[in-house]
Write a structure and sequence with these properties.
Number of domains: 2
Radius of gyration: 30 Å
Helix content: over 70%
Distance between the termini: 82 Å
Shape: extended
Order of helices and strands: HHHHHHH
């Protein structure tokens, strides 16, 4: 009896492996993911080519400037939210914060090269690096 139960269990397992599984079309998913990757590369390359055009560079200038001072803009955003100054709908709040951040970044970058908090972090890290290098020189 025990041998028959083992044989029946093994044959049941064999039929389980023969039937279609949820992963039986894995090659289709692989081809789809490869084609999606190819499409993503095309989109990124098109974006790189568009940015090199003078007109697009001028249109995207506020976003470029905002990208150089992310720490400052994010900190300002958190302060504005914490203060409760904006009591409008989320869509209006998004538009106000986005436009004000882009304008601030554009105006700031006309006169200075980096945001105020970015400048502060750079100064602190530069001083820390000089102190670290001096202490290493003293130990030698």
């Amino acid at each position: 009896m025990a041998g028959g139960a083992v044989t029946m269990g093994v044959s049941w397992m064999m039929w389980w492996l023969v039937g279609p599984a949820s992963r039986s079309h894995a090659w289709v998913e692989t081809v789809r993911s490869i084609s999606s990757l190819g499409f993503a590369v095309v989109v990124v390359m098109a974006a790189f080519l568009l940015v090199r055009m003078p007109l697009m560079e001028r249109l995207l200038r506020p976003f470029t400037d905002a990208g150089t001072m992310v720490l400052t803009l994010y900190s300002g955003y958190v302060l504005v939210l914490a203060s409760g100054m904006l009591t409008i709908s989320p869509a209006e709040q998004y538009a106000v914060v986005l436009i004000s951040a882009l304008l601030f970044a554009l105006l700031w970058r006309r006169h200075l090269t980096e945001g105020p908090l970015e400048w502060l972090v750079a100064q602190c890290s530069c001083k820390a690096r000089h102190r670290l290098m001096a202490s290493r020189e003293e130990r030698r």
